[in-house]
Amino acid sequence: MESEFDVVILGSGPAGLQAAVHAARAKAATAVLGKARSSALYKAHVENYCCLNDIIAGEDIINEGRRQAEKFGAVLIDEDVLHIERLADGRFSVKLESGDTLRVWTIVLAMGVSRNRLNVPGEKELLGRGVSYCVDCDANFFRNRAVTIVGSGSAAASGALRMLLVASETHLVYESLEVSDKLRYQLESCMAHIHPGRKVSRILGDSEVRAVLLDNGEEIETSGIFIELGAKGAIELVTGLGVALDTESMRFVAVNKKQETNVPGIYAAGDICGPPWQVAKAVGEGCVAGLEAATYARRAVARVVRS
Q1: Cα dihedral across residues 32, 286, 154, 254: positive or negative
Q2: Domain ranges of the chain
Q3: What CATH number does the domain located at 2-114+233-306 have?
Q4: Which of 41, 221, 242, 269 suits a disulfide with 289, CB 3.0-4.6 Å?
Q5: CATH for 131-227?
Q6: Is residue 301 pLDDT above 90, yes or no?
Q7: What share of the chain is helix, strand, coil (3-state, %, to 5)?
Q8: Integer distance in angstroms from the first to the last C-alpha of the chain?
């Protein structure tokens, strides 16, 4: 199924929800993508936010923000994004894990930053020598070799499906699978070796990865391990769109004071733009990004009407 929106916001944390509130109030057709539990704020507590004197549970803040965004007309879609591409008419095509597609005029990146690591022996030592955190970035380095994907979310599931086209053998290790029914069906129907209910306890190798050890004692011979613990991050999603990263660390999306990236129609807000990791910063940037994105979409539609 294909739907159309003016603004789509990737991320259901404080930056994304604030962007949704302002974009929707500006009368832009707005969708918010992502699972609430994926926000770093969801399991945290806040006591240093202006005008709130008591300690507030992050879960309560997120849930109230979702209700507020919906009240102003934003559509909440609890799915992760698998792929984004630019279309000939200037819009973007956003593919969801369910297989549905959104056509949108502008995108706000508000997915936060990935801090997820396995924290097992061998992970740090073999980083860049078989250990990777990005299937989209490093898949081709493992062509015709055995690989292992670790993770329970859409990034791991879609990564395993992609590696089937590249690797000689693909393993997927997860504790519990949290993906759409369609993605689950694709996994169950494919040729990947699935290891449900398992965790990686150690990554083995000297100069490069040679195997992973599971918590049940099983050893999987592999040349690479992709650690994909969550949804696809911004860097993976915007790799092919030309979005610039900060020049110092190459970890964050570079923006100006309007929260614009270097790519017209793409904005970013919150942790994805760099520290400090504070709700106040995320909300402020989300406000600016939402307003600017709505304005961009309105002008884009007006240009189409005039032509």
Answers
A1: positive
A2: 2-114+233-306, 131-227
A3: 3.50.50.60
A4: 269
A5: 3.50.50.60
A6: no
A7: 30, 25, 40
A8: 28
